[in-house]
Amino acid sequence: MNNLEYLNQISQETRPTAAKKSASMSLIIKIAVGGLVAFFFLMFLGMALNSGKTNPTDLTKQLYVRTTNLNTALTTYNKSLKSSQLRAIGTSLSGVLTGASASLANYLAPSTDEKSDLNPPEKLLATETATIEELDTTLNNAKLNGILDRVYANQIQLQVSLLITFISQLEQRTKDTDLLDIIGQYQTNLYVIDQSLQDYSSPSD
């Protein structure tokens, strides 16, 4: 399955019944559009990585920022989920993100004095800011419309998928064994979370 098919699959929403409000329908359409936007962002990311203009250190900083941003979103919305299973997955993912953030921060800035320099260049930072703001808006709207669990599952699985792809491309750009160890373990943990989210969204009979 290619990236477009995969992202389309995880951004699909169950069709609302006739009794659903038009606001919910509009929100679901926005979510589907958000999935396509994320796909095009992924294409842009791939081209940026392959262009050779962004060095591995800046990409690692971008990964660090994305990781910490996603963890903040989980902390904000996980407690509002109705499903205990989905909350457990969110808690597990938060643990993965927390551990990865710490490892990436120590790799990028071994001393305390260097911790202020963890942000990537302005252009990459702007991309991450836009990404997390879009996610926050989507999840907040879903919460207000009473469909947070469904939207959360789709959106977080999408973000996990994007992280896995980001890491795969970063692996191709670096030969640093310390960094490869960190992101390799990070990616392995994300695969476990991704499978848990797939099992939640498509439970076996």
Describe the largest sheet.
none
Q: In total, how many beta strands? A: 0
The stretches of 5 or more residues where confidence is low (pLDDT under 50) are: 13-21, 47-51
Tally of helical segments: 7
**Outline, from the CA principal axes?**
globular
Distance between the termini: 23 Å
Question: Mean pLDDT, rounded to whole units?
Answer: 84
Structural class: mainly alpha
User: Strand content of the residues, in percent?
Assistant: under 5%
Helix content: over 70%
User: What Rg is obtained from the alpha carbons, in whole angstroms?
Assistant: 17 Å
User: Helix and strand succession?
Assistant: HHHHHHH
What would you say this structure looks like, in words?
This protein has 205 residues and is an all-alpha fold. 77% of the residues lie in helices and 0% in strands. It is built from seven helices and no strands. The longest helix is centred in the N-terminal third of the chain and has 30 residues, at 22-51. It is globular and about 45 Å long. Residues 13-21 and 47-51 have low confidence and may be disordered.
